[in-house]
Design a protein that fits this description.
Strand content: 15-25%
Number of strands: 4
Helix content: 40-55%
Shape: elongated
Strand order of the largest sheet: 1-2-3-4
Number of helices: 5
Structural class: alpha/beta
Radius of gyration: 18 Å
Distance between the termini: 19 Å
Largest sheet: 4 strands, mixed
Length: 91
């Protein structure tokens, strides 16, 4: 993130923590949802299910977070259509 900021490069990250720290935007799986779903797997295993018998799952909930302060610093204008689709816009 420091390299992108130093060179004034727009960058997209995979988790919201980077955007909270000043990154431009993130798009990736919602980690809270992944942890919640992992807990159901742990529950099944503790109740006797064999891990090899459990299906492999992919993330189903993704989130787009945009930091407008960083966009302004980089001289970027984020289109309104993109802002409307974002799950969260940091002012």
């Amino acid at each position: 993130m420091d390299l992108a900021a130093k060179n004034r490069l727009p960058a997209v990250y995979t988790s919201r923590e980077f955007v909270d720290a000043g990154g431009l935007m993130s798009y990736g799986a919602n980690l809270a949802d992944l942890f919640r779903r992992a807990a159901t797997y742990v529950d099944k295993i503790l109740k006797g299910a064999k891990p090899g018998d459990l299906p492999v799952e992919q993330p189903t909930k993704f989130e787009l977070i945009i930091n407008l302060k960083t966009a302004k610093t980089l001289g970027l204008t984020i289109p309104q259509s993109v802002l409307e689709r974002a799950d969260e816009v940091i002012q």
